[in-house]
Amino acid sequence: MAVVEDKKKYRPLEPILIQINKDFISLSKDEMKRNNALLMSLMDLLIPEMKRKDPLFKEMYTKVFYGGSYYDKLRVKEPNEFDLDLLLTLPVLSEPLVSIANVPGYTTLKLNNLSALNKHADLAKRYSGLSKLLENEKDCYLDNDKVRRWMESVVTLALNTFPHTKGNYELKLPQGKFIAKVHKSGPAFTLKLNGTIDRVDIAVDIDLVPCFMFNIDKLPVKKLNSGFKSKTFFIVPKPIKNNSAINCANRYWRLSYQEQEREIMECKNNQYLKPTIKLLKKLKEMDHPYIASYFIKTVVIWEAEKRKDDESFWNTSFSYVFMTCLKKYCECIENKKIPYYWNKNNNLIQNISPVVLGNLKCRLNNIIKNIEKNMTDNPKIFAEYFLTEEEKLRLYSSLNLNIQ
């Protein structure tokens, strides 16, 4: 009976949540179509040049995986940042071995039989640069820093084939002329693209990330065999934070199950899953930006796992689903633990100060209490925590609510 009451309890919030989802956390379909076409045109232009300039890239490249919050349809801010994973494979003859590392969420990649390539003149020639990407030729671990630097050089060589002045590259795309510029900040390698489409100025940042792709049978992760259609996973050259105490830190690669996570979120029964993640992200950007968006996504994915046999939950009402997940998020912060979905021994927020988490817990508790206390008489209380002043005025106008 209590569950039924809870579902009805949040009904006063429903119109406001639906309107916020429509007006403030959903991207324009026309804008998405335009951006998708632009990025595909860019890759159609750039990838052939990268293959032409680097024989090793030509051998290992398979396809682009369009990842990140934009392509997961979880983007809340303006769609001007994109993650493109360049998926690579290694020659079977080199016997690549993926092993779970002693750092949660990470793996190592070792070529157990690199010498076998040298016994075949054709393969030795085609993969002649592979040994330069290893930590050393004795241990044969793939070095994530060397791979990142190699990819940067391949992209730069390809860009140099286009007209350029002082690091500004002129690219002629079907959408028009664009200027590309490379930006380097720490390990991140970003391509900044500027141009105009239909008299609208376009400025986007594109992270090109070299990733290696493997079949799931190469990794002993039980969840990967739990009915997912996708049978591959990626490893990403993401450095370990605070790695000074870790030996051979460059041999560690971050595991990535983007395809499987996308399947969870796109389940036909999970109607309000993505809007809930986006609204929680909206709250964190307004109130506590130091929490990574992926952590929030993980909280909701765990909730999807918990309720995988309860098809009705995600389709009850947006307000009920959202408030349930907001409370779960608060509970995780209170417990100072958000377990990584693919390895629950990895606490995603373990490096955040207990004082910071304690303050956030109090903040979230207050938000929940104030919403529940006032939502019947004043449903606008919800907007106080999720929208800017300008957005609130737009919302109240849309719903014909009094501004005061």
From TrEMBL:
One of its GO terms (molecular function) is ATP binding. Its cofactor is Mn(2+); Mg(2+). Residues 70-266 form the Mab-21-like nucleotidyltransferase domain. InterPro entries: Mab-21-like_nuc_Trfase, Mab-21_HhH/H2TH-like, MAB21L/cGLR. Residues 274-359 form the Mab-21-like HhH/H2TH-like domain. Keywords: ATP-binding, GTP-binding, Magnesium, Manganese, Metal-binding, Nucleotide-binding, Nucleotidyltransferase, Transferase. The keyword Mitochondrion does not apply. It comes from the Eukaryota. Coiled coil: none annotated. Pfam families: Mab-21, Mab-21_C. The keyword Transport does not apply. PANTHER family: CELL FATE DETERMINING PROTEIN MAB21-RELATED, CYCLIC GMP-AMP SYNTHASE-LIKE PROTEIN-RELATED. This is Cyclic GMP-AMP synthase. It comes from Phyllotreta striolata.
